Amino acid sequence: MANYFRDYADLCFEAFGDRVxxxxxxxxxxxxxxxxxxxxxxxxxxxxxxxxxYKAAHHIIKAHAQAWxxxxxxxxxxxxxxxxxxxxxxxxxxxxxxxPKDIEAAERYLQFCLGWFANPIYAGxxxxxxxxxxxxxxxEQGLDMSRLPVFSLQEKSYIKGTSDFLGLGHFTTRYITExxxxxxxxxxxxxxxxxxxxxxxxxxxxxxTWPVSVPWGFRRLLHFAQTQYxxxxxxxTENGASQKLHCTQLCDEWRIQYLxxxxxEMLKEPLLSHMQMVTEIVVPxxxxxxxxxxxxxxxxLLQSQS
Length: 306
Description:
Layout: H1 2-16, E1 22-27, H2 29-37, H3 52-79, E2 82-88, E3 91-94, H4 100-123, H5 128-140, H6 153-159, E4 166-169, E5 173-178, H7 189-193, E6 195-198, H8 215-228, E7 234-238, H9 253-305
């Protein structure tokens, strides 16, 4: 399938590359793998608990790498475009910030969500916590090898660095707390993570089934992605709020507030950089000018009195 996807990507590059300069190989592959091969809610509708989604993701990552390499070697020189991937993830906040277990669980939530695909692309392999957790539970379930597939050394080298930008989709935030699911319950992505997702009842309810508005989680996810993956160019590829179920007219003030909150959080980092520039450059310059002007005025005043 990875080879077929590369051929398909080549066809797209050839047909549209003179006009398209930004390419996304896969959009939200985590949902594709989980709902297609774990829960069966999406095509192809399989319920291969704790195994199918990891195999599907493994091939998606390799297909992405093949498409990137094909563009890089054949098309980039003449088309001057960029190729990336779009990954969706909610922010995971520790339920108890003083609890080491909750802090670890929140980190694990992010690694099983964003790191699952981003870590191979930016670091060459799956997050260590995924390899450890899934490997341990697989052994406890009597399996000879981990349910998480393994990249060869050649594949790791081939996949690492295959993204010109990181597309990031984000909608809401969850509080995360530790919960241990015994291996005897059987393989599943849910159990492999050993955590529970919670929602604060005080978070603004948009009136639909999903999501709740938690703008500050967006900023924290952006910061996590920047620091975790070497500060890559980030394009926000998905964000927004679903329609209120009871709203039949044009009544989207709640959506305006949602977008305003999330956009403001996204802008905080440039604003902080701007404020740093003001503090380090503008303020000292203005102070110096004020002192010089005061000295000149004082000299003129003394000359006029003499």
